[in-house]
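Quick check before the chapter quiz. The format below is the same one you will see on the exam, so make sure you can read both the input and the output lines.
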Amino acid sequence: MDIAEILGQIRRPTATVPLCLRGDLMAVWEQLERDFEAANNSVDDDVTASGRSSRAGKIAREMEDLRREMQSATRVFTLQAARRPEWLRMYAEHRPDDGDDGKKEAFAVAIVAACAADPVMTPTQAEQLRDELTDGQWEDLVRGVMKLNRTSPGVPFSTAAAVEAALGS
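Here is the expected output.
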């Protein structure tokens, strides 16, 4: 195989970063967890035939409904690595390692915008997104972009999937 064929086979790495956009529901979840623990550990007359608390079962169903609601409010961002010349240009423009927090933020906005494949966004939109997300959510996106551009993709392996495939289930 010659270099032209190799160059024609190259596809830039992609990755996904899921973000739950309904962080306000975490307080509801935490209260349900406390209520479930209390109901599950209490001794009362309201038990099912299996000896489990009816109240704990009701709360568990509420928790599962809430988990589904949060899952449906989760947006998966698809990222694609930048071409190396573009990455180096952005890095050179912002020099994020010089200790200037403003440049670090500008670099983060630039790379998220440049690597956002779905949804596609401009730097201005990436900045608006950053301002609405929590610091942790924004860092998840930035880490995803950094990983795509600063590491070499390998061939993934899952022991559980390989065993399942071998068993033919």
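If your answer matched, good. Residues 76-150 form one domain.
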